[in-house]
Amino acid sequence: MTTTEFAMSRSTLAAITALATLAVAAPALADDHVDFGRARPLRTAAADPLPGDAGLAPMPEPGPARETTIFGLPKNVGTVDRVVRTVIGLGLAGTGVYGLATGDLSDTTSGVLMGVSAVPFATAATGYCPLYQVLGIDTQF
User: Fold this and answer.
1) CA gap 3, 34 in Å, rounded
2) Using alpha carbons only, what angle is made at residue 113 by residues 108 and 116, rounded to the nearest 5 degrees?
3) How many Cα neighbours within 13 Å face the side chain of 21?
4) Measured between alpha carbons, how far is 73 from 39 in angstroms, rounded to an integer?
5) pLDDT digits over 10-40, tens only?
6) Domain boundaries, the chain
7) Which pTM value belongs to this model?
8) Distance between CA 141 and CA 138 in Å, rounded?
């Protein structure tokens, strides 16, 4: 191979081809993608049962639409709860970092504290708590 030749591995060529294909196809697929940032209309059944389904009751009217997270999950953590979770996460992470810096805590304990701090940070950031959903708790006002 001379210095003027340009060599490209198969994986690099495949990656460039895939990106080029996506760049060309993206405008055509723009209406088919999922956008978690905008509200989606609710699909409900017909209010009147069909003539052959006389034994089925009509679907109830949907209530007011609930606010959802960027992942499409219902928000069930209120503002005050989110602030408290952020403070708890900062306390756990700060204690872990302090334990590593001073040697007062073992490396394992500090690591666990910093890892566990991700839970309150994540629930505060998203506004959704899976445990609250299981227990039926909603602090969103």
Assistant:
1) 46
2) 120
3) 6
4) 12
5) 777 677 776 666 655 555 544 445 555 556 5
6) 66-141
7) 0.53
8) 8
Q: Distance (Å, rounded) from C-alpha 115 to C-alpha 109?
A: 10
pLDDT one-digit tens code per residue, 73-128: 889 999 999 999 999 999 999 999 999 999 999 999 999 999 999 999 999 999 99
Q: Which two tokens stand for residue 42?
A: 């609710």
C-alpha pair distances (Å), 77 with each of 12, 51, 127: 45, 44, 5
* Nearest Cα residue to 123 out of 84, 92, 66: 84
Contact 128, 69 (CB under 8 A): yes
Residue 77 and residue 84 in contact, taking contact as beta carbons nearer than 8 Å: no
Contacts 24+ apart (CB under 8 A), 42-48: none
Read off the tokens for 21: 């294909």
Task: Tell me the three state secondary structure of residue 68.
Answer: strand
Residue 129 confidence (pLDDT):
93
Q: Are 65 and 42 in contact (CB under 8 A)?
A: yes
Contact indicator for 120, 127 with CB cutoff of 8 Å: no
- Distance (Å, rounded) from C-alpha 105 to C-alpha 101? 9
